């Protein structure tokens, strides 16, 4: 009877972003093998799930692909949200291969806003095929969604309600877009690399320049939807949480960040 609570208490619980999960899950594998740590890693609720888990004390480390907002902090006033950046990523706008082949290689901010608000409903209106736009919108609260609407509207609270079908994690998003003609969604840029069935669009600036979500543009902050990747804790990480965070920040952990397509801290060029 006395041993079971000790075993449960010793489990390091991690939850949150599917983007950060790739790195965290492999880091957990290493620490289980090398230090015999008991670690669970889940992606329930994405970034918002990581924040709420730290907020209510149900997890030890949250994985998030957006900064903790002031609204998040106000919701949990007794929690000292502590962000540890582990890398950098970007939100890409992806389309199904037929849309890309039909001539849509980049969109302006205004075009994306009109598509999001269903003012533009056919790819023909933006130089593409005569086909209905199917927008798979990331669930509100997901880090990817928040970065996207923050760029479009200045703050997630200013984003209008829309009636697009919703998707959750990166794998589901990529699969839905790949299997649907005329599809579009927001996706972690690394998940769109070297994918024949989905293509990442460039963002067309007011001067006509097309900015693509390349590592160089993300590293310099030129791409407008670059975003940091964080592990978050309630106060500075301690005990097993400290061990885990330190591992991800170590050269070995940073190589996992690079392995999964994200920029390591040392790759960033604007700090």
Describe the structure.
With 271 residues, the chain is α/β, with parallel strands linked by helices. It folds into two domains: 3-86 and 228-267, D-Maltodextrin-Binding Protein, domain 2 (3-Layer(aba) Sandwich); 90-220, Periplasmic binding protein-like II (D-Maltodextrin-Binding Protein, domain 2, 3-Layer(aba) Sandwich). It has helices spanning 3-9, 18-35, 46-56, 70-75, 97-101, 109-116, 143-153, 170-178, 215-220, 239-249, 251-259, and strands at residues 12-16, 39-42, 61-64, 81-96, 106-108, 134-138, 166-167, 183-188, 198-200, 202-204, 210-211, 226-234. The strands form two sheets. Strands 1, 2, 3, 4, 6, 7, 8, 9 and 12 form a nine-stranded mixed β-sheet that branches. The protein has a three-stranded mixed β-sheet with strand order 5-10-11. The protein is globular and about 55 Å long. The termini are far apart.
CATH architecture heading of the largest domain: 3-Layer(aba) Sandwich
Largest sheet: 9 strands, mixed
The number of distinct β-strands equals: 12
Superfamily at the CATH H level of the largest domain?
Periplasmic binding protein-like II
Total helical elements: 11
Q: What is the CATH C level class of the largest domain, in words? A: Alpha Beta
Computed over alpha carbons, the radius of gyration is 19 Å
Q: Report low-confidence residues grouped into runs of 5 or more.
A: 5-9
Distance between the termini: 52 Å
Order of helices and strands: HEHEHEHEHEHEHEHEEEEHEHH
Q: What share of residues are in beta strands?
A: 15-25%
As for the CATH topology of the largest domain, it is D-Maltodextrin-Binding Protein, domain 2
What's the number of domains?
2
Structural class: alpha/beta
* Gross geometry: globular
Helix residue percentage? 25-40%
Please tell me the overall pLDDT: 94
């Amino acid at each position: 009877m006395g041993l079971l609570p000790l075993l449960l208490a010793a489990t390091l619980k991690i939850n949150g972003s599917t983007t950060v999960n790739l790195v965290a899950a492999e880091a957990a594998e290493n620490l289980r093998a090398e230090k015999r740590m008991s670690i669970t890693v889940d992606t329930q609720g994405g970034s918002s799930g990581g924040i709420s888990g730290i907020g209510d004390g149900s997890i030890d480390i949250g994985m998030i692909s957006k900064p903790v907002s002031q609204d998040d902090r106000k919701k949990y006033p007794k929690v000292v949200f502590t962000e540890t950046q582990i890398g950098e990523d970007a939100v890409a706008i992806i389309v199904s291969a037929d849309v890309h082949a039909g001539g849509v290689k980049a969109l302006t901010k205004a075009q994306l806003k009109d598509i999001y608000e269903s003012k533009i409903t056919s790819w023909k209106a933006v130089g593409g095929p005569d086909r209905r736009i199917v927008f798979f919108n990331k669930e509100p609260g997901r880090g990817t969604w928040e970065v996207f609407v923050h760029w479009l509207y200045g703050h997630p609270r200013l984003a209008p309600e829309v009636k697009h079908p919703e998707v959750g994690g990166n794998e589901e998003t990529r699969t839905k877009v790949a299997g649907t003609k005329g599809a579009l969604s927001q996706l972690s840029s690394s998940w769109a690399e070297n994918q024949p069935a989905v293509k990442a669009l460039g963002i067309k600036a007011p001067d006509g320049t097309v900015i693509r979500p390349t590592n160089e543009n993300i590293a310099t902050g030129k791409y407008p939807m670059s975003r940091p990747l964080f592990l978050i804790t309630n106060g500075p990480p301690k005990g097993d949480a400290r061990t885990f965070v330190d591992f991800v920040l170590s050269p070995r952990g940073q190589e996992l960040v690079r392995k999964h397509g994200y920029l390591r801290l040392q790759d960033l060029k604007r700090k």
